[in-house]
Write a structure and sequence with these properties.
The structure holds two protein chains of two kinds.
Chain A (H helix, E strand, L loop, with lengths): L18 E12 L2 E12 L3 E5 L6 H8 L7 E6 L2 E2 L4 H7 E4 L11 H11 L4 H15 L14 H13 L5 E5 L7 H16 L3 E6 L2 H6 L2 E6 L2 E6 L1 H5 L9 E7 L3 H10 L3 E7 L2 E7 L4 H10 L6 E4 L4 H20 L1
Helix pairs in contact in A: 3-5, 4-5
Chain B lengths: L8 H14 L1 H21 L7 E7 L4 H12 L3 E6 L3 H9 L5 E5 L3 H6 L7 E4 L4 H24 L21 H32 L1 H7 L4 H29 L9 H25 L3 H18 L11 H7 L3 H13 L5 H30 L3
Parallel strand pairs in B: 1-2, 1-3
Antiparallel strand pairs in B: 3-4
Helix pairs in contact in B: 1-9, 2-7, 2-9, 7-9, 7-10, 7-11, 7-13, 9-10, 10-13, 10-14, 13-14
Classes of the chains: A alpha/beta, B mainly alpha.
């Protein structure tokens, strides 16, 4: 987890240089409720930053503060080196934002939506034409240019919304759950597009619920009830000691009758936790645990184990462990 | 417009133009509904009361009593529909609503006239409709007075005082002349406030408003971009209604049409600002519609459009000064019926302008804070 010094009220920290997004002690309150509670983040240029967390944990609130939609209650934030509190107008020139709802004008056509956003950003006619062509080359919306946005499918709407958000060549794009409710092919294509663009130096700040999407990010953070509880590359997070308690290892056991096998496996000492993944069990076990013992235990009940192999933790394991630890901590504090 | 306080104005205007071109039905209805209401109110509502259903119980049944009934008949106000044979029957006609007025001439009517006593005639009036009752009361009293005078001083008396009332501005007392100029206030409010509020709340629901706030568009550019198209719609609706009033209803315009248009601008400005305020409060389109109606009702009741303000209880009379429609009803009736000029009406225009500036200020303050919350 990134360690920053706390930001004392009234003291404006010096402008940080070099990063796409920096927040220090970011706080947002709604009345008595604290939606975002002291978040410190640093996202470098060209990163695909995955921002994860359960519903209502403050993801969208952080995005709204960074894009200037909501004022900060406390702390500081810089986007492309600009202070969002005092330089929001310049910030808006440099960012693009796509909300969960793919906010488009349904009664306008694809071309009209693009042209409207082009005009809003004040693109001159020739640049607007060039950028529209670039966007159409990228997202393949060309054949639907004169179709009303309302008549596009979810995936196409999302591509159009992304196109509108990046028409003005923003350096940083905020995408709030860009793949919610769209089909797997469109989802895959969007991520391919994001990586292509990130290769050109665009920074992406993406919220998602999908773990496979998180695995693809170059940098992920996990927010839980307003607090950041994990922050780093997927690989460094998987090596965290909280996720890999000393004296333990992870194994994957593939077997038929998987739910009965899981129940039986949990009876054995040395298995700390076990859960089903498709046709196999992912288990966290003691370092000295002998998997042959598990195999024979299952065999006595008529279950033939087909494969046992060591396993690296997934990001889901990481977030589950951290959330669990955090809940325990909260209970201790309450008691 | 790369910068400046109106940044984004032209882009928003372009978009609103596209919306309007696409959604022709909405604009069509915005213009058609007012004309439809004008037709209904112009033709159907007639405040001049004629031909009130009247039932008669004539116990006397002589030449004298029949003469009196002829006076009732010829007044144009009463229409004798039946003759009752008993008090009960007379009452039943009125209670059932088949007749609004019952005239009972007692047996001794002609005897009393002959003996130079006081002949009594009972006129029962259904008080459940106050305007009908008022007319019946006045006319029947006048008939009685006239009949008495004729009998006391002869057929063509010379009066000491001769009051000759002259009805100015609306000599035939035609109802459309009175109603339609006032109706302008209600219909313009409907067209502008309603359309503005719904159009902004729709963007709020879709999330496009939030999207716009992430772009460099300036609040004034956005506000004016949303308001100007509806100001234009309001002016077109106004011109349409004026043409309609002049040519379909043959209402003579005593004053300048251009002065009406000029003084309508501050009123439209007030209405648009009200639409903005509604859109900052309402979370959904249906809520916006409800709140628009809440503003339209006081305009109908307190602006003097239907009920004279002078007869209102003091509290309502004072309240009516806060209703923008009050000033506009005075402006439109003043120009169209009384031929008033700018020198007579500039204060009403000024009050509307001040209201508009104040409301726009309130709306602009609420706009950014409230509209994007949640």
């Amino acid at each position: 987890m990134a360690a920053h010094r706390p930001n004392h009220a009234g003291v404006t920290p010096p402008r940080p240089n070099g990063a796409a997004i920096v927040t220090q002690g970011l706080v947002r309150r709604f009345g008595a409720f604290t939606a975002v509670d002291g978040v410190d983040l640093r996202v470098e240029h060209g990163e695909v930053f995955g921002f994860l967390g359960p519903n209502g944990s403050g993801k969208t609130t952080v995005i709204k503060m960074l894009t200037g939609l909501l004022p900060l209650s406390e702390g500081a934030a810089w986007v492309d080196g600009l202070d969002v509190r005092t330089e929001s107008e310049q910030v808006r020139e440099r960012i693009g934002y796509m909300s969960q709802k793919f906010s488009l004008y349904d009664d306008l056509t694809v071309a009209e939506n693009l042209e409207f956003y082009g005009r809003i950003y004040g693109l001159p006619a020739d640049r607007l034409r060039r950028r529209t062509q670039d966007i159409l080359d990228l997202n393949g919306l060309g054949p639907y240019l004169h179709r009303q946005a309302a008549k596009l499918s979810g995936g196409w709407k999302q591509r159009l919304a992304l196109g509108c958000a990046m028409l003005h060549e923003p350096k940083i794009l905020f995408l709030d759950e860009p793949t919610a409710g769209i089909d797997p092919v469109a989802r895959r294509q969007l991520w391919d597009l994001l990586f292509q663009l990130s290769g050109q130096g665009i920074t992406f700040f993406v919220t998602t619920h999908y773990m496979d999407e998180a695995e693809r990010c170059s940098h992920v953070a996990y927010i839980y009830f307003g607090r950041l509880i994990a922050d780093g590359t997927p690989d460094t997070l998987k090596e965290m000691p909280e996720v890999n308690p000393p004296g333990t290892k992870r194994v994957e056991v593939t077997a038929p009758e998987i739910t009965r096998a899981l129940r039986l496996a949990r009876e054995l000492p040395g298995i700390r936790s076990a859960t089903v993944f498709g046709q196999s069990i992912h288990a966290l076990v003691d370092e000295g645990f002998d998997t042959a013992e598990l195999e024979s235990h299952l065999l006595r009940q008529g279950i033939h184990v087909s494969e046992v192999r060591p396993l690296a933790p997934t990001l889901e394991d990481v977030f589950v462990e951290l959330t669990y630890k955090h809940q325990q901590l909260a209970e201790v504090v309450r008691a | 417009m790369r910068s400046g306080p109106f940044r984004g104005l032209r882009a928003v205007l372009y978009k609103e133009f596209l919306h309007m071109r696409r959604d022709r039905m909405a604009i069509f209805f915005a213009l058609l509904i007012p004309l439809g209401q004008m037709i209904v109110l112009g033709f159907a509502i007639d405040t001049n009361i004629r031909n009130i259903n009247t039932v008669v119980f004539n116990q006397d049944n002589t030449q004298a009593s029949r003469e009196l009934l002829d006076r009732f008949r010829n007044s144009d106000t009463f229409h004798i529909v039946a003759f009752a044979q008993s008090d009960k029957e007379l009452n039943d006609w009125i209670i059932s609503g088949r007749a609004r007025v019952g005239v009972k001439i007692p047996v001794d009517y002609s005897d009393q006239l002959l003996r130079r006593g006081t002949a009594q005639v009972l006129v029962l009036i259904d008080g459940s409709d106050s305007s009908v009752a008022g007319t019946a009361l006045n006319v029947s009293t006048a008939i009685g007075l006239d009949e008495s005078l004729r009998r006391v001083v002869g057929v063509s008396p010379r009066f000491a005082v001769d009051v000759r009332p002259k009805l100015l501005f609306n000599p035939d007392s035609r109802s459309p002349n009175f109603f339609l100029p006032g109706l302008l206030a209600v219909l313009l409010l409907f067209v502008t406030t309603f359309l503005t509020a719904v159009s902004i709340v729709r963007e709020k629901e879709k999330g496009t408003l939030e999207q716009l706030f992430v772009t460099p568009v300036k609040p004034m550019g956005l506000l004016l971009g949303k308001l100007l198209p509806y100001l234009g719609t309001g002016i077109i609706a106004l011109l349409g209604m004026l043409v309609f009033m002049r040519f379909a209803f043959q209402i003579p315009f005593a004053g300048s049409v251009w002065l009406i248009v000029l003084l309508s601008l501050p009123y439209l400005f007030v209405n648009l600002s009200l639409g903005l305020i509604i859109s900052s409060i309402a979370g959904s389109q249906s809520e916006a519609i409800q709140r628009s109606v809440m503003i339209i009702l006081p305009t109908i009741f307190f602006s003097g459009y239907i009920f004279p303000r002078e007869t209102m209880p003091l509290v309502f009379y004072l309240f009516s000064f806060l209703v923008p429609g009050t000033y506009y009803v005075n402006i439109s009736r003043g120009i169209i019926l009384r031929g008033a000029g700018f020198e007579h009406l500039w204060t009403d225009g000024l009050v509307l302008l001040i209201m508009g500036v104040f409301l726009l200020f309130v709306a602009a303050r609420r706009f950014r804070n409230k509209i994007i919350a949640v």
